[in-house]
Specification:
Blueprint lengths: L6 H30 L5 H9 L6 E2 L5 H4 L7 H14 L16 H6 L4 E3 L2 E2 L2
Parallel strand pairs: 1-2
Antiparallel strand pairs: 2-3
């Protein structure tokens, strides 16, 4: 048999609703600030504070060890980049790295400004 909620239960339910509405409003504000570019994300802040002036790596001269310093490039992917370079000759454009297995558009975007080919930086 169902019992009737007590007055304190109604008060707690009401306070919970007010709290959840407040959280929803804050989420909406943060979302709007993020989309307008006004809000800096944690990733951007960390990258700028720890790596403010990173000179780009030349894909044609970088060693596998140097390539692993790039975001998202581990030992296996660095080895594939070096193997591709050895099999196909030097990279002619930075976009050619997309031919390496394991590098797609998203990973290429993460490498923006961090790779070069004979002085030609990634867009």
């Amino acid at each position: 048999m169902l019992r009737k909620p007590t007055k304190s239960e109604w008060v707690l339910l009401g306070l919970t609703g007010v709290f959840l509405c407040g959280l929803l409003a804050l989420y909406g504000q943060d979302r709007a600030r993020l989309e307008s570019g006004e809000l800096e994300t944690d990733t951007q802040a960390l990258q700028e504070s720890f790596m403010p002036d990173v000179s780009p790596l030349d894909l044609n001269t970088a060693t596998a060890e140097e390539l692993t310093t790039l975001p998202g490039i581990g030992e296996a992917l660095a080895a594939r980049i070096v193997a591709y370079r050895e099999a196909n000759g030097p990279f002619e454009t930075v976009e050619e790295i997309l031919e390496v297995s394991g590098i797609g558009e998203a990973k290429f975007a993460d490498l923006e400004g961090r790779i070069t080919v004979d002085g030609e930086q990634s867009p």
